[in-house]
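Most newcomers find our protein records easier to grasp once they have seen one. Each record describes a single protein and holds just a pair of labelled lines. A learned vocabulary of local backbone shapes supplies the integers on the structure line. Nothing more is needed to start thinking about how sequence determines fold. The record below serves as our worked example for the rest of this section.
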Amino acid sequence: MRSVDIDPQACDTSKKHVNSDRFKVDCDDSVAWLKKQTDLDKVDLFYLDSYDVDWNNDTASADHHLKEFLIIESKIKPGCVLAIDDNSRWQANNKRTGKGRAVVEYLAAKNHLPIYDEYQIIFQF
């Protein structure tokens, strides 16, 4: 398992509490980090949970997650699972909001719909 976080304190906390030689955490921007990876085609599960969402204006967070997805899209192998955290719908108008909004819209245009669509949105490829 690999994790990336831009917050050095979060990275230190992860390293302190996960004692396994199968876990690695890097302190970096997720978009920059993903661009440097050479083995994304071997990943079974991507869990996107970067960039805190502003529930009143999700654009920055949703766009950031779409940037992450566009980097990994061509590397996703069959059977791979993609999960995106922190999503919701406004009760008054059923409008989608959250970190995964732009990815869902992008994939819906390609007729690829989530297999689970709640607070976490999950796709299988």
In short: Residues 79 and 106 are 19 Å apart (CA to CA). The chain has a mean pLDDT of 95.
